Amino acid sequence: MTVFVRFEGLSEAIGTLRKLPKELEHKTILRMSQVAYDEALAGADRHHKTGALRQSLYNREIPTGREVGHDTQRAPHAVFVQLGTRPHEIRPKDKKALRWASGGEFIFARLVRHPGYIGDAYLISAATAAVREFRRIIDDIFKEQG
Fold it and tell me: pLDDT per residue over 24-80, tens digit each?
C-alpha cells in the first residue's frame, strides 16, 4: 500500500530553512519536531487501552534532520490505528478458538467479523501542525538571537 501526503507550505518552509545558518536550521528543525511529537502524543493518547502507542512514539535525530514516528516493534498496530482497516475476519492462528474477557467472563469464538476501522491519522495532523508553526518558530528563534 502506498500513502501520499501533501503538506501545504512545506516547499516554502524548506526553501527558508536552506537559507538559514546551520545552527538556526538545526534549532528550527528541533523545535518543529517537538511540535510534531507533542501533537502526536496527544493523538496517541486518544488510543490508550494499553499505552503502547504512546510509549512507541519517538522524536530522534536522523542524518537529514529529525524523525517523529512509531517504533513498530513496540506497537505493531500503529499503522492500523493511523490508516484504518477494511472489514475483515479474525480467526485463531494456532488454536481452535479466539478468547477474550468481557463482563468478568471469557468469550470464545471460532471467527470474529471485524467491521473495520476508519483510522485516525494523528501523525499527519502532527506534521501539519509543525509546518503551520514554522513561521512562529523562526520568529521566536530570531528574537532569541537578539
Answer: 889 999 999 999 999 999 999 999 888 999 999 999 998 888 899 999 999 999 999
pTM of the predicted protein model = 0.82
Closest CA to 26 of 146, 143, 138: 138
Q: Which amino acid is at 55?
A: Q
136 neighbors 43 (Cβ within 8 angstroms): no
Give the residue carrying C-alpha cell 519536531.
33
Q: Give the DSSP H/E element, type plus range, for residue 30.
A: helix 22-45
Other beta carbons within 10 angstroms of residue 75's beta carbon come to 21
3-state secondary structure of 64: coil
Cell of 14: 524548506
